[in-house]
Design goal:
about 170 residues; alpha+beta; 5-stranded antiparallel sheet; 5 strands
Length: about 170
């Protein structure tokens, strides 16, 4: 089983960057992510290079394929959910957070006019400018930060006027 790993490097290097007609991923050349095509190539390489006396279990191979299919399905559902969420923001006011050149957080408030993806990342268009969906800080405006109150100077307490009841008289000693 360890010998097939050495043979993977001999696979056609351009085959992993080609997309099948049914593939919907946008894989970049040199990417470290594996898609279903890469996974199937690994399984084929394993079958081609296995020891006939110690053949790989087809049950294990089927389990791996099912797991890969489940991961793809979960990824697809997540992508669809993200796009549905971003499309629900169209027409709503949002607060975008972006750091300026000095590193200070700037809050940009505007209305979402469109959504989409850019390089596989979901984006929203706020007043015609593209921002990552993850840069939304709030739907609506963030409340103003309360300004720290300056401590009030202590006012001197007025002395209570002494009344007959509160006046003290020295005790007589006998």
């Amino acid at each position: 089983m360890s010998s097939y790993m050495a043979d993977i490097s001999q696979l056609n290097p351009t085959a992993s960057t080609k997309q099948s007609p049914n593939s919907s991923s946008t894989k970049k050349p040199g990417s470290s992510e594996l898609d279903m095509d890469d996974f199937l190539q690994l399984i084929v390489a394993q079958f081609q290079n296995q020891d006939p006396e110690n053949a790989a279990s087809t049950t294990d191979m089927m389990n791996m394929m099912v797991q890969m299919t489940v991961i793809q399905a979960i990824t697809h559902v997540t992508d669809v959910s993200t796009m549905l969420y971003s499309s629900s923001l169209v027409g709503k006011e949002v607060t975008i957070g972006q750091f300026d050149k000095t590193g200070k957080l700037q809050e940009i408030v505007g209305t979402v006019t469109a959504t989409g993806t850019y390089s596989g990342e979901p984006v929203v268009f706020v007043d015609g400018v593209s921002y990552k969906l993850s840069s939304i800080m709030a739907v609506g405006r963030l409340p103003e930060e309360p300004k720290p109150e300056e401590p009030k100077p202590e006012e001197p307490k007025a002395e209570e006027p002494k009344t007959e009841e509160t006046q003290t008289t020295p005790l007589a000693t006998t």
